[in-house]
Amino acid sequence: MINKKILIIEDDEDIQTVIQYNLRQAGFSNVSSAEDGLTGLNLVIKLKPDIVLLDLMMPGLDGVSLCRRVKADNALAAIPIIILTAKSSESDIVAGLEAGADDYVVKPFSIKVLIARIKSALRRAETASLTVEPNPIILHGSLSIDIERRIVSINDIAIVMTFSEFEVLLLLASNQGRVFSRSQIVNQIKGDDYPVTERAIDVQIAGLRKKLGCSANLIETVRGVGYRFTENPELAKRA
Fold it and tell me: Where are the alpha helices (DSSP H) in 10-104?
């Protein structure tokens, strides 16, 4: 894990320097940086880092727009992105997660917490890339989930999914009929130390349904409880 490539996209030079120093002290020697969004995007494409630390407020290309571009590119979408933001309101956090970010840390932050989040995100990405399921393809009508290749298709047309969207869909589809509360979804996908609101999970589900199109009714809302991958899609209610 120590040899993983980390890219910091942050326009505050002091914050950038502090993060770089502490990452290297923690044993991460392969650390690159960019001071604006466009330069950062070009470095993501060029370096294909193992993880990106991304500021939201930057000149030119802002963090949310950059995140969307990365997650819309199949060659880059699996790269974990941790947002570093001084915007701590729920709407700002939801905007970052909706754009495809895998985690967020609010400024000012603890370096120890940031490094723990980085290691956790790298472990999740590594596990996702190495794990091969006994039955690598899940089929539900026109929906196909290729677990090994991490490809979701509707009527044989591939759909771009963020890392988190794929994990949520896989969790539900692998446990058809089982109801998961929002907190259970967070714990399964992110780990039980991930501070996210119920609203953020609702946004993830809404994004999934939009992308699934004609198969959106496979994800059923169980009012007052959470969500499940329905056993009766023709009867499912989209709430």
Answer: 13-25, 37-47, 63-71, 90-98
- Nearest-angstrom CA–CA distance, 31 and 29: 6
Residue 153: strand pairing partners? 144, 158
Residue 205, CB-side half-sphere exposure with 13 Å CA sphere: 25
CA 150 from centre of chain:
13
**Domain 137-235 is in which class?**
mainly alpha
- 132 falls in which pLDDT band (50, 70, 90)? very low
Instruction: Tell me which architecture the domain covering 6-130 has in CATH.
Output: 3-Layer(aba) Sandwich (3.40)
pLDDT score, position 177: 84
Burial 106-136 (b: 16+ CB within 10 A, else e): eeebeeeebbebbbbbbebbeebeeeeeeee
Closest CA to 206 of 104, 97, 103, 128: 97
Domain segments of the chain: what residues? Answer: 6-130, 137-235
d(CA 56, CA 11): 10
Q: What is the pTM of this model?
A: 0.61
| 226-229/180-181 β-pairing | antiparallel
Helix crossing, 37-47 with 63-71: angle to 10°?
20
Token pair of 93, please? 């956090």
